Amino acid sequence: MELFAQQVLNGLVTGSVYSLVALGLTLIYGTMQVPNFAHGQLFMLGAYLSYTLVTRAGLHYWGAMAVAVVVMALAGVALERLVFRPLRNAPHLNSMIAALGMMLFLEALAQNIWGEEFRHMDSPYGGVVSVFGLLVTTHRLILLGAAAVSMIALLLFLTRTVAGSAIRATAQNPEGALLVGIDTSRVAMATFAISAALAAFAGVLIAPISLVYPSMGAMITLKAFVIVVLGGMGSVPGALIGGYLLALAESLGGTYVSATYQDLVAFVLLALVFTFKPTGLFKEAA
Amino acid sequence: MRAAIVRFAPIASLVAAVLLPLVVRNEYYLQILTQGYVLAISACGLNVIVGLAGQLSLAHAGFFGIGAYAVALLATKAGLAFWLGLPAGILLCTVMGYAIGSICLRSKGHYFAIFTLAVGLIIHLVIQKWESLTHGHVGVIGIPGPGPLGPVTFDSSTARSYLALFFLALTVAAVSRLVRSPIGRTLMAVRESEALAAAVGIDVMAAKRMAFAVSAALAGLAGGLFAGFIGFLGPESSNVEMTFNTLLYIMVGGLGSLSGPVAGTFIVYGLSQVLAVLQQYQMVIFGLALVLLILFMPTGLAGLWRSSIAGSVLKAEKPR
Fold first, then answer.
1. Fewer CB atoms near the end CB (10 Å): N or C, chain B?
2. How far apart are CA B105 and CA B210, in angstroms?
3. SS3 state of residue B233
4. Residues A25-77: pLDDT tens digits?
5. Is A86 within 8 Å of B281 when comparing Cβ atoms?
6. Which residues of A touch B283 (CB under 8 A)?
7. Å from A20 to nearest chain B CA?
8. Does B275 touch chain A (CB under 8 A)?
9. How many CA atoms within 13 Å lie on the side-chain side of A53?
10. Which residue ranges form the domains of chain B, and what is each CATH number?
11. A-interface mutation test, from B46, B49, B121, B318, most A Cβ less than 10 A away
């Protein structure tokens, strides 16, 4: 029973990260119809930035997080402006190849700057607390809380503010949004900024728990794609719930079925869905 | 004059290719040359599905790996000679390509790319984790190379280089036939607009499936040769990075053109092997190159060639 509870907790921690990353991916897909293969690399760069700021510049964890999130949001804007905007009217093959190129570039860049080694970053919240008899590090609890708060904030932003409505309108119908006076190119830029910020936020949250290394983004991109496909490309609630579900399936499957093939679970799931539903589980939604 | 250049170019490059193994005496460079021929075969294969049919398949290295491991394992475990293992590997890739294509191609556009990326990863992970069959990370060692065919032996690097060149020439000739055949026209129609192609009565699914199987078969051929020539095989031969490299080769050369993938392979692979600077920053440069190419030169070298020298002659072959 304790093992089960432990695995559920692990699943929730990983799930928070998956959901945050998948949310960004699904937002970009919804508004721009671009599968951003480089999304996980933004997550990875966020983690590295905070690592450097904490260990080299001596910044506090939250300060480092703020800087990393802002820097990556700006990087997201640059990515949209310089790479994806010019390709908007090109065949979709082109933007996909560009995204693949960015993915290779950013990962190799990190490898050249920080090296191949796994980096460890301490959390200021290293203590252990007992929750219903289960020993949990404080950082994990903070991660769970911070992720939940940011997700609620994002949902409120999308549903309660004018800017959020503009994003949803663009996702539903770009031409229609343009017709009612929404500046869709600014929406695209804002979406990229939010999405990159979410990825970086997730990266900084998980950095003290998992290690920081150049290829940490590649796997999470693929997982996020699995989630987004399961939850519906462009669907926000789908990405949110899908992230937690996949992580729980992985941590329980890894414990009770096979640890060797744990990483395979997600991809086999994706292949199965596509085999029986070639357009994903849900119709594309906003 | 222009017509003369266009007609002369393929012959000139063939002559150069035939002479190269004789001129290059350095063992190391000779091996790079052979490797280049093998990778060019794989690039031609990827070009069939991406360049001709317009479907971004990211499972290509998976098929390369299947072909390579088929030859390696049939030789080391079943004692099957290279010359029997190679066709077996190609057959396996064709059948798997046909089957996997039948499933994956039902998804379109972005979904197809994501689906094949997952399929490529599954193949790679299975190769890496199935230790009892593939020896996992350790890899397969001591794979016998191609044995003699009648009086011809393939023990020297020069002979192997010619063997690879022979298969590359065969591949280019086959793809060239395919492009000029009604099937090739069908594929290009599908690439330009699936809806339009279907409306004029083209069986879009059959055309795409055929292209996928051909592309898998060529990846298998390249993989089989790779295993036989190197003599050692690790799981990294099937990883996704391999697919991306191959994609870069055909992007540099020109998506959908005949000779572009070959030229692209030689330029990119050759430079990456010869220039030490490139080795350290290889993926930084490759990644950036891929983005810059798609932004500023989406038709690659073939597009430049067409618009500068051969523009007036090859109008029929419309660049993308």
1. N
2. 11
3. strand
4. 999 988 888 889 999 999 999 999 999 999 888 888 899 999 999 999 999 99
5. no
6. 104-105, 107-108, 111
7. 20
8. no
9. 21
10. 2-308 (1.10.3470)
11. B121
Q: Name which of A89, A90, A92 is nearest A37 in CA terms.
A: A92
C-alpha A57: how far from chain center: 26
Give the integer Cα–Cα distance in Å for A182 and A187: 8
Q: Give pLDDT tens digits for A117-164.
A: 898 888 888 778 887 777 788 888 889 999 999 999 999 999 999 999
Query: Structure pTM?
Result: 0.85
Q: Are A106 and A41 in contact (CB under 8 A)?
A: yes
Tell me if chain B has a CB within 8 Å of the CB of A258: no
The dihedral over CA atoms of A190, A196, A200, A201, expressed in degrees to the nearest 10, equals 40
Q: How far apart are CA A111 and CA B232, in angstroms?
A: 27
